[in-house]
Amino acid sequence: MRGVIFDGKQPSVVDDLEVRDPGPGEVLVRIHAAGLCHSDLSVIDGVIPFPVPVVLGHEGAGVVEATGAGVSHVAPGDHVALSTLANCGTCPDCDRGRPTMCRKAIGRPGRPFSREGEPLFNFASNSAFAERTVVKAVQAVPLPESIPLTSAALIGCGVLTGVGAALNRARVDRGDTVVVIGTGGIGLNVLQGARIAGASRIVAVDTNPAKEEPARLFGATEFVDTAEAVRALLPAGADHVFECVGHVGLIRQAVDLLDRHGQAVLLGVPPADAEASFRVSSMYLDKSILGCRYGSSRPQRDIALYADLYRQGRLLLDELVTRTYPVEDFAVAVEDARGGRVARGVLTF
């Protein structure tokens, strides 16, 4: 079968991948669409260290082909979105409703794939850049067939992360002021999360003027290109500032743009050894810096919620898909993503 692999030097599209059958508590999914996320590029660039060879992709949707023993919530033929959380469901963090903190779901890649007899790792417990993949049952969330799979694919990472950061981690409330630094796929979803939450002013910050139109579509009330312009709009600062780029200089700007009792939420991914700084005295007025993994989400709950919001017309999915690419055009999709020409490119099988 076809898929995108990374051998530690360069990615390539191959047609001779194999995947094992699902075991107990697992699901085999035929992938129809998978979004190209910057986390995939970060593996290629070495920003996210990961063992190789690996089958890339982690933002997918498709149709269940087979289930292992003990799986009852999905059946062959069901449409599903895939999460990256292969959480155990039994540890203290899972029991508290914090599956993103499950220690059994972080840094434990499996090797369900093989090529010419060599085992390959899965990425983010998912590997959606393959025609078929095997995931834990908890990662497969059923969806209505009315949602196009090219749009549904984006729920599993970009939407869960961005919308979840606003609703779950920051808990944006009605009337709050919000600043979003970087309006790529994650930033757009933070914007619409803030809109759904009822924020009164939502300022998008990006140096690319072409991003103003989509930013406003997703919820921005203002669009500027510098931190100084934000200060002109919000002289006292903002209640919430989301850094969606992964640059230490922008992290500092996020902290400096906070109002009293404000919180900076870090979503962008800088290099693993990057260090950021801030003025300690600026934090005493009840300001906070919050990390955020995967939108602090509970995928079985949140994916169903976001699917319902989509059907109500309150959450945008179709508009996130700038362009679709057959998987053979992976290199073109990467070039467009690096060039900032797409909010999200989606690979199709």
List keywords for this structure.
7-stranded mixed sheet; 6-stranded mixed sheet; Quinone Oxidoreductase, Chain A, domain 1; 349 residues; Rossmann fold; alpha/beta; 2 domains
List the helices and strands and how they pair.
Layout: E1 3-6, E2 11-14, E3 18-19, E4 26-36, H1 38-45, E5 54-55, E6 60-67, E7 79-82, H2 92-95, E8 113-115, E9 118-122, E10 132-136, E11 140-142, H3 149-152, H4 158-169, E12 177-181, H5 185-197, E13 201-205, H6 212-218, E14 222-224, H7 227-233, E15 238-243, H8 248-256, E16 258-266, E17 288-291, H9 299-311, E18 321-326, H10 330-338, E19 344-348
Parallel strand pairs: 5-9, 12-13, 12-15, 13-14, 15-16, 16-17, 18-19
Antiparallel strand pairs: 1-2, 1-5, 3-8, 4-6, 4-10, 4-19, 6-7, 7-11, 8-9
Descriptive notes:
Helix 10 links the parallel strand 18 (about 320-325) and strand 19. The strands form three sheets. Strands 4, 6, 7, 10, 11, 18 and 19 form a seven-stranded mixed sheet that branches. A six-stranded mixed sheet has the order 2-1-5-9-8-3, with no helix packed on it. A six-stranded parallel sheet has the order 14-13-12-15-16-17, with helices on both faces. By secondary structure, the protein is an alpha/beta fold. It has helices at about 40-45, 90-95, 150, 160-170, 185-195, 210-220, 225-235, 250-255, 300-310, 330-340, and strands spanning about 5, 10-15, 20, 25-35, 55, 60-65, 80, 115, 120, 130-135, 140, 175-180, 200-205, 220-225, 240-245, 260-265, 290, 320-325, 345-349. The longest helix is centred in the middle third of the chain and has 13 residues, at about 185-195. It has two domains: about 5-155 and about 315-349, Medium-chain alcohol dehydrogenases, catalytic domain (Quinone Oxidoreductase, Chain A, domain 1), CATH 3.90.180; about 160-290, Rossmann fold (3-Layer(aba) Sandwich). The model has no long low-confidence stretch (mean pLDDT about 95).
